[in-house]
Specification:
289 residues; mainly alpha; Four Helix Bundle (Hemerythrin (Met), subunit A); 2 domains; two-stranded parallel sheet; 10 strands
Length: 289
């Protein structure tokens, strides 16, 4: 399929290839073999797709004459953008073939798929929000017939994401419009107004999407206030936690929690089995006191 795709792309516009590339993310499914890492990996995949869709929105890819036809010889940036989209597409296709080999090599392996029920309510909320935003920013591609496929290997997933992030870094450097990227990231999280969802989104964006991570950090500061301490020293089995804490019930049920208090402390020295928290607790005791 990669060779066929390479032939087709020569006659396509930046906009068409962009939409096809964004859509490809939606056909990637993760297997239950990811176990407890499933939610984290799914949200990281969502973050990568969201970042790609943000680029398209920032350059107005679906409404600009510049990107509506194959680029001319004098438009280096547009030609490079096509090369990046091709590389992402080919990368995903390569991982798809590898996943097929994984499945055929040992039919006894667990090849069942993870489902939304395998994520917490908070995770589903973040996933749905990111998916809806990315879909809104793309036009239906329809370049190639696509089918959903499953990825089972966590290491291969990590390598795929790392390569995609490197390509997105270069794509954004090719079109250096940081203020537009930042403004759009703020809009992406405008309706996300509870700390658990923002925290989950920030974890997903870490190492994937610095612009989104910064936007979430700014909103968390406004929404949750701040928790801070001076120098911290611990001895023996003591523990010190700086920050709010949420019980498994709060995270699993997706309960909306907002809090704007400021908690601070000077230097802390903890010893023995002492437990210290600078922050608030939601849904139960965070430490065995």
């Amino acid at each position: 399929m990669a060779e066929v795709f390479g032939v087709i792309t020569g006659a396509l516009s930046v906009a068409a290839l962009f939409n096809n590339c964004v859509e490809c993310f939606e056909y990637i499914q993760l297997g239950r073999s990811f176990g407890r890492d499933y939610q984290t990996c799914q949200l990281r995949l969502d973050a990568a797709r969201l970042r790609l869709s943000r680029w398209g929105e920032a350059v107005n890819v679906n409404h600009s004459d510049r990107f509506a036809a194959p680029p001319g010889d004098d438009d280096r940036e547009a030609a490079m953008a096509i090369a990046y989209f091709e590389e992402i597409q080919h990368l995903i296709q390569g991982v798809q073939r590898s996943a097929k080999r994984y499945q055929l090599a040992d039919p006894s392996r667990n090849t069942s798929l993870a489902t939304p029920e395998d994520m917490t309510a908070v995770g589903n909320r973040v996933h749905n929000c990111a998916t809806e935003t990315a879909r809104h920013r793309q036009k239906k591609a329809g370049i190639l017939k696509k089918m959903s496929w499953a990825l089972y290997d966590g290491k291969e997933f990590g390598q795929m994401i790392t390569t995609i992030v490197a390509l997105l870094d270069e794509l954004e450097q090719l079109f250096p419009i940081a203020p537009a990227y930042s403004r759009l990231a703020d809009l992406e999280i405008a309706k996300v107004d509870d700390e658990p969802s923002l925290a989950a989104l920030q974890r997903a964006a870490e190492g994937i999407d610095p612009t989104l991570s910064d936007a979430v950090a700014r909103k968390l500061l406004l929404l949750t206030g701040s928790n801070s301490a001076g120098a911290i020293e611990t001895e023996d089995d003591s523990e010190v936690q700086v920050g709010n804490w949420y019980s498994d019930q709060v995270m699993a049920q997706g309960l909306s929690v907002t809090d704007s208090t400021t908690n601070s402390s000077g230097d802390i020295t903890a010893a023995g089995r002492s437990r210290v928290q600078i922050g608030n607790r939601f849904g139960g005791s965070s430490m065995a006191l």
